[in-house]
Design brief:
- By secondary structure, this protein is α/β, with parallel strands linked by helices.
- The protein has helices at 3-23, 26-42, 51-69, 71-75, 90-94, 96-101, 104-110, 115-126, 131-138, 142-159, 167-183, 186-192, 217-225, 288-292; strands at 87-88, 193-202, 214-215, 241-247, 250-257, 260-269, 275-281, 295-296.
- The strands form two sheets. A six-stranded mixed sheet has the order 3-2-7-6-5-4. It has a two-stranded parallel ribbon with strand order 1-8.
- The longest helix has 21 residues, at 3-23.
- The radius of gyration is 20 Å and the shape is globular.
- This is RNA polymerase sigma24 factor.
């Protein structure tokens, strides 16, 4: 490995972490990192004083360009759009800031920002870059970056839960939900769900899913209590396997057929540990990262 390759390899995880938070897609993030390598390998690196900042600038710009180019595609998406889930390591869950910034809930909120606001928010609030550094990265004036950062911060603050249960409580509730769902225990499911819980299902038009949010504890509990009794995506209940895993920095569930992953489930919690939202991704195109089985390190430092 050459010196230039070693430098890029050293920051590869950081670059993926930035790109994934900006794009909400593991496949697109990997492509962006690969494009960043092409730019890095052809650049005049003798003029690069800070490789970390330089590479982050490259990947941020590429991610921003990609986000803009796919905006229309996401706006015309069939049913709710959810981020592509990834497996993460236990270290991510233990680092609260890292876990929250890569959670499904946060990525859903970030999707409501403009491309520029999203990139600025990720670089400033998650990775701690200065306004001046971000201005260089996104090729905007520092004043424009400050304004975008303020708008994004206020927007995210207004849409994010102010208080959430601690990590151990979240794991405990997820384990109970898992047991109740796979055992068809609707009463326990009702206990774990907030009365106005919302289930978001993302099939992307590829598989049959609810095209609108499913709201209410009774309806959502009935949905999950039926898992062990109904055929899902032509998979018989006896052939379906469910597993508790860490997804996007928090506890989640992966449902699999003998030959493929068919869905993931992640949760939002209130301060008491009740489930307030459930995100169910079943679009096969968004399950490739889970199928690969690689746990991503999405640390911010």
């Amino acid at each position: 490995m050459s010196a230039d390759q070693r430098v890029f390899h050293e920051y590869r995880k950081l670059l993926f972490s930035v790109a994934y938070r900006v794009l909400g897609s593991a496949a697109d993030a990997e492509d962006t990192v690969q494009d960043a390598w092409i730019k890095w390998s052809s650049a005049d690196r003798s003029q690069v004083a800070d490789p970390r900042a330089y590479l982050t600038r490259i990947v941020s710009n590429l991610a921003l360009e990609h986000l803009r180019s796919t905006r229309h595609k996401r706006e015309s998406y069939i049913g709710p759009w959810l981020p592509e889930p990834i497996l993460t390591s236990g270290d991510t869950a233990d680092a609260v800031t890292d876990a929250e910034s890569v959670s499904t809930a946060m990525l859903v909120v970030l999707e409501t920002l403009s491309p520029l606001e999203r990139a600025v928010f990720v670089l400033k609030e998650v990775f701690g870059f200065s306004h001046a550094e971000i201005a260089q990265a996104v090729e905007r004036s520092e004043a424009a970056v400050r304004q975008a950062a303020h708008r994004a911060r206020e927007h995210v603050r207004a849409r994010s839960p102010r208080f959430a249960a601690d990590r151990s409580r979240q794991r405990e509730v997820t384990e109970r939900f898992f047991a109740a769902a796979t055992g068809g225990d609707i009463n326990t499911l009702m206990e774990l769900l907030s009365p106005d819980v919302t289930l978001w299902t993302d099939g992307g038009g590829k598989v049959r899913q609810a095209l609108k949010p499913v709201v209410g504890a009774q309806t959502v509990a009935s949905w999950f209590a039926a898992i062990g009794t109904v055929t899902y995506q032509v998979v018989q209940p006896a052939d379906m396997r469910a597993e508790l895993v860490e997804i996007n920095g928090g506890p989640g569930i992966v449902f699999s057929a003998p030959d493929r992953v068919i869905a993931t489930v992640t949760f939002d919690f209130d301060a008491d540990g009740r489930i307030t939202a459930i995100h169910n991704v079943a679009n096969p195109e968004k399950l490739r990262a889970i199928t690969e089985g690689t746990a991503h390190d999405v640390a911010t430092r």
